[in-house]
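hiii, so i know i said id send this last week but things got crazy w the move. better late than never?? heres the sequnce for the chain we talked about at the cafe, plus the structure i predicted for it. fair warning i was half asleep when i ran it
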Amino acid sequence: PHARTLAVFGAMRDKDIAGFVPKIAPLVAGWYCCDLPTPRAASAAELAAVVRAADTARDGPAVPVHEHPGPAEALAAALADAGRADRIVVFGSFYTVGGVLKSGLPRLPAPHVPDTGRAGATS
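okay and structure toks below
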């Protein structure tokens, strides 16, 4: 119940970014916008501008919005900011998800997940 949702976000410029960001923005406590390796992609700065515009349209304190050169860097920053109960959502484009999965999915220590000796598991 006290978890925050942090969003790693990269998307194509020709998608309805301004249409869907306001719908998900109330659920997100921190944004990690990223550049993607294709000319069709919106830049991290463009995405951050849309997120900031959606954030100013809602009540409450400003939500942190960060810009990163790629999905891996955005994920690293989100991981550094995440608490034990927080969740990180990676979305917007297959390039975003692929950029995160390319190096393998990180495992976070969590009090409800026992360490069973798996590689990468921590207690």
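btw The first helix runs from residue 17 to 24. thought thatd interest u
miss u guys!!
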